[in-house]
Amino acid sequence: MSIPHNKANIVVPVTDSTSLRQIAHSSGSTPWDIVEIRVDRIPEIHQFIPDISAIPAPIILTCRHPDEGGSNDLYSPERRSDMLEPLIPHAAAIDIEIANAAEMHETINLARLSGLTVILSFHDFTTTPDDRQLQDIIKEGIAKKSDLIKIATTTDNPTQLCRLLSLFSTPSDKPLALMGMGKLGMASRLIAAQSGSVLNYAAMDKATASGQWPVEEFRNLIER
């Protein structure tokens, strides 16, 4: 299964083994299109490869660096690679921070050789960078040969929200996934989904980032 680049996909993050098993054994229609497995939050992840292979949806692998919200002190690129690489045969995409793409190049190359979509991402949990910085982030993602660029920033006021969403007007041959966190995070995600964001994160149970809608409500609102 692959990641569609021509629609507003709804993504649910999985951060524990209970949710992983629940999704793996779901049947019938689901309110999500894609499942993100937060490898950094499930240290025993390799025990659940049979469950991962049973998930009836495209899978994004994310082993987030602690500087951008990751868990369990996974600063070492070797440790992150060791956790990610055995899972690559079961995934459709891998998400690596733009800032850490160089040190994770071997894992990224393996993902590319395996036909995965390479998502390069940026996260700011305090603000939304200014227009020039945002443009530089896009340029860096393109230079590092991403297939899809994901940017998540804090949107506590209308100025920050407009600055983030203005990226949809930036000429680029790369699909974008944009999302806000903070006070206007929920508003940002609805607007982003309607404006062309390829990945739109929602909560299966408890939100993993501020601004996430409950997944069923988010699906209903988007379809409305």
What does this structure look like?
This protein is an alpha/beta fold and 224 residues long. Helices cover 32% and strands 19% of the residues. It is built from 8 helices and 8 strands; from the N terminus they run βαβαβαβαβαβαβαβα. β5 (117-123), α5 and β6 form a beta-alpha-beta unit. The chain is globular. The model has no long low-confidence stretch (mean pLDDT 93).
Please state the oligomeric state of the protein chains shown: single chain
Number-wise, the strands total 8
Distance linking N and C termini: 27 Å
Unreliable stretches covering 5 or more consecutive residues: none
Query: Order of SSEs, N→C?
Result: EHEHEHEHEHEHEHEH
List key phrases describing it.
alpha/beta; 8 helices; globular; eight-stranded parallel β-sheet; 224 residues
Spell out the blueprint of helices and strands.
Blueprint: E1 9-14, H1 17-24, E2 34-38, H2 49-53, E3 59-62, H3 77-84, E4 93-97, H4 105-113, E5 117-123, H5 131-143, E6 148-154, H6 158-165, E7 176-181, H7 185-195, E8 199-201, H8 215-223
Parallel strand pairs: 1-2, 1-8, 2-3, 3-4, 4-5, 5-6, 6-7
